[in-house]
Amino acid sequence: MSDLLDQFLGGKSPSKVDPLDEELRDIAAARRSIIMHNAASPDAAARANVLSRENGLPPTIVEQHLPAFEIARRSERANALMAKHPAIGRWSSDPRNIAAAADDYDNLGKLGAAFASRIARDKRDLMASGGFVERMGDLFKSGVYSLDQGAAAVRGALQDWSARNPLPWTSAENTEAAVVAARQARAIARISRDMAGTKVAGETDWSAVKERPTPGNVLKFGLDQTVKSVPGMAQAALMLPAYILGQAGSIGQTRANVQGREDADLQDVGEATPAALLSAALERIGIRGIFGATGKNAVMRATKAGATEAVTEFGQSAVEYIGGHSQTGTEFSTDEMLDQAFAGAVAGGVMGGGMRGTVEASGPVARRARGLVKQFTAANDAVLDGQFLDGLGKAINGTKLATRDPDALSSLIRDLGEEVGVEQVFISGEKIVAYQSSGADNDYFGECACPWRT
């Protein structure tokens, strides 16, 4: 009862702490004090903890050999970046570059990501939904990518052949330049091929028509394919040799792909050339059928143009399939060829009639529509390029190499541009130094003073 009375009367309660527990706490506190006293660097201890978890080793062992573990970790991460961005790997083949950037590969990886993001952002833009004018602009851009991939495939094949078969008087520098040019052209071809194959948001494709063959779907499919075809038709009408080369590159690339190869070589392009010539001839017949159609009235002329374009597109699609698959050692699918040909015929019928109708009614409305598409496409490209330059500038600003060896960083930027097909990106070492010391990022990044922002 005395304890209870003490509590009510405010007296001192007897200690109920277990002496053994108190002793253990004192020992633990002393141990912590010793560890904190002996810790040379809390940062080093934290880094050792991270590495110990990554390697499954006791932290004390890692801390004793921390420099060696950190070098091994940097090497692993650098190798991973080189695998992800081959241009960084090629740049690192120079031992002096590795020495200068040994602790900077994480930041160099951000440079690679900035270049890759330009392509990814463009692809996301195609896939993002928008209004009618935006969709028309994206479809037109998809058609341009389709042209680019064929032309780039030919350039890559020619440069590769030139590098592999140098003339006796060809210098080593010119041979290396051909290797670089082939690599860049093939990168452009791969990127353009991927972009051309990306479905535009809101686009009605052939599978949707086959699933629901309603008049609305057929007309939408024909309209979308018409816009995609405009760049190719313009090139065939105005620059026939360039169109033939592009078709040879595109068909040659198909031949390479069906045989399990990533890039077309000169033999693929040569074997595809007969099909490219026939495809170009059919394209010109279709163009003449649209713009040279005769008849008593506009309806008859539009109908005749649609029929002519349907036949030529059927033939073109079949020829391109045959050219890309025949004598490749792979299975030839007649069903697939006919499916591709019928898709071309349906699109061609709508395209020919629609384009002839536009010719019949050509005037301010048609010109205004074309102007809107062109204007939107140019503005959209400017926004994407501005975002790319923003990211590139921030990545440059974050690297240690920018102050250590600006010329080496300039070389890496050029190599990264070649790898992803981003042309005309060259930043000299002097400009990097000037940028680092100018504080330009304070004026541009994140604010509206940047000239490519609105």
Features:
about 0% strand; about 450 residues; mainly alpha; disordered C terminus
Query: Stretches where pLDDT falls below 50 for ≥5 residues?
Result: 423-428, 439-454
Listing every helix as H and every strand as E from the N terminus to the C terminus, the arrangement reads HHHHHHHHHHHHHHHHHHHHH
Report the sheet-strand fraction.
Answer: under 5%
Distance between the termini: 83 Å
Bin the helical content: over 70%
How many discrete domains? 2
* Rg, Cα atoms, Å: 32 Å
Biggest sheet character: none
* Strand-pairing-aware structural class: mainly alpha
Mean pLDDT: 72
Shape: elongated
How would you summarize the topology of this molecule?
Layout (H helix, E strand, L loop, with lengths): L1 H8 L9 H20 L3 H14 L3 H6 L1 H19 L1 H6 L3 H6 L4 H23 L4 H33 L7 H25 L9 H6 L3 H24 L1 H19 L7 H26 L6 H28 L8 H27 L3 H34 L3 H4 L1 H15 L8 H10 L1 H5 L10
